[in-house]
Amino acid sequence: MTSRRLSPYAAAMILTPGLLASTLAGAAEIELSSRIDRVTVYPDGAVVTRLGKAQLMAGASQIVLRGLPASVDPASIRVEGQAEGAFSIGAVDVRLVPGEVRTGLDPAIESKLKTLREEKAMLEGRAAAIEAKRGTIERFGQAGPDKLGPDGKALPLADWPAVFDAIGTALVKVHEELRSVRGRRSEVEAEIAALERARPQPGRPGAPRRDVAIAVESQGSLAAEISVSYRVSGANWLPGYEARLSTGGPTAKPEILFVRRAELRQRTGEDWGDVAVTLSTTRTAGGTRAPDLPPMQVAFFEPPVVYENRAKATAAPAAPQRPFGSGFDKTISLEDRVARAEPARQAEVQTAQIEAGAYQASFQVPGRVSVPQDGSSRAVVLSQGTIAPALTARISPELEERAYLEAAFTHEQEAPLLPGEVFLHRNGAYIGKGRLGLVAPGDKVELGFGADDKLKVTRAPVRRRENDPGWLGQTRTDLREFKTVVKSLHAQAVKVMLSERIPFSESSAITVETLPQTTPPTEKQVGDKRGVMAWSFDLPAGAEKEIRLAYRIKWPGDRDLSFEAKPVR
């Protein structure tokens, strides 16, 4: 037995075009009935593997797999086969053929729509009749009791209350009937609109599909198992996370149940029914190598008139040049845009097995999964585990006089955490959503779990003194001092990290100095944030801590200052 794994282009290198055409044209066709067995889904596409059986004849023949999506990449097609006897796989031919025309009508929906439209017409007729009845009653009431007696004479005065009651009762009844009919008509119209939105859209007449013809040669009649794999666009998976924090207590330690999820969607043009699914972190549609950096020449600037003269002397206009430093285009496929725009719909959650490699990670979803082609999401749990975090109350009193609980831990799994949203819970209560960036194994993860209402924070200015220059060239100064008090209402000690900032200057004419009244900080500079300092301390139960910050700015008296917050890089 011989099997070959070839792309159409690789096959064309082995057989000449004339030999390929004559081999496929003269060979008998064998229909390959196949099913999708497994799918590997990437963030920007999928590789589908179909399995089928074919009864081969002695000599040359061709196996035809019909009706694949038009989005199949012909260069990605791979064919493998096995049988009890010897046979070989030759050329692989990919043909673009017109697709089937679908009516797209659902008999059940169409029958329901017909019934509802008939009911709507009946209700509209009833509403018109009631409107006419109401108009008659109103005209009768406008005549007045002075003209309702015999021969158009006035009714006796004693009969007037009965007439008023009769008109009022009739109007109330007719209004109630009209309200009921209009209400039912609104319900029917809403049902009709919902059904019309749910109606299957008719397929585009003649929408193309792809057929794959596989040349085989066998020494005798035998049953062969054929595997065909191909890459399609219109499929993707997005990572998501869930973090459930239990803050513990005087005797219990805090812990986080961290769940890694994935939302899988596809619009490939074929349903994935009862298939084995693998999710991979590899991106298949992006670049495969680093961009080539071209050399850059610097020259003297020439006035625009020179360019005009050169343009007139040039026969053909030059191609527009891309400005240096403008970056590279990052495009997103139409299928990915459509898939991501679809509303999420929760599906049955299953647990996955992680296989981490040197350059990528894959997640084997246990069991078999069905994923329709309508873009609805299928959710799976990739991993979950309990983590022991370090809890800290973070405070930035200049921006907000409130403490926020933060949990930090080290990511110890072999597979990295891809960027995605994380749903946060604290002691069983949903707090909100955060976002994770790319986290490599061994990196630190910091998650915020909402405000800590058992820490009371107050910040107040202690003094501010600014001098006005009395003569030209005098130096101006601005002295500021603040006091922040943190008081704990917790029953146990908590760790607190308080951040403050002073301005920084890149001009030698402006000096900023920290004054001795400042409480010595634990970190004089937090990371690469210039001017930002932090105080870390353990605050016992019921205790309070005071932090002071004082600084002075000096600059020439004939200049004014501006303060601008710089983004963190």
**DSSP helical segment count:** 6
Helix content: 10-25%
Instruction: Estimate nothing, just give the exact number of structural domains.
Output: 4
Structural class, from helix and strand content?
alpha+beta
CA radius of gyration is 38 Å
Uncertain residue segments: 1-23, 306-311, 313-335, 344-351
Q: Strand share of the residues?
A: 35-45%
The major β-sheet equals:
8 strands, mixed
What is the CA-CA span between the terminal residues?
A: 61 Å
Q: How would you sum up the global shape?
A: flat
Rounded mean pLDDT is 80
| Number of DSSP E strands | 26
Describe the structure.
The protein has 569 residues and is of the alpha+beta class. The protein has 4 domains: 8-102 and 206-232, Immunoglobulin-like, CATH 2.60.40; 107-198, Helix Hairpins (Orthogonal Bundle); 236-283 and 333-391 and 411-444, no CATH class; 455-556, no CATH class. The protein is 20% helix and 40% strand. The protein is built from 6 helices and 26 strands. The protein has helices at 8-14, 17-26, 107-143, 160-198, 304-313, 334-341; strands at residues 28-31, 33-42, 45-56, 59-68, 78-83, 87-98, 208-218, 222-232, 235-246, 255-266, 272-280, 353-356, 361-364, 369-371, 378-387, 390-395, 403-410, 420-426, 429-436, 444-452, 455-466, 475-488, 494-501, 511-514, 532-539, 544-556. Strands 2, 3, 5, 8, 11, 12, 13 and 14 form an 8-stranded mixed beta sheet that branches. Strands 15-10-9-18-19 form a 5-stranded mixed beta sheet. Helix 3 packs antiparallel against helix 4. It is flat. The model is unreliable at 1-23, 306-311, 313-335 and 344-351 (pLDDT under 50).
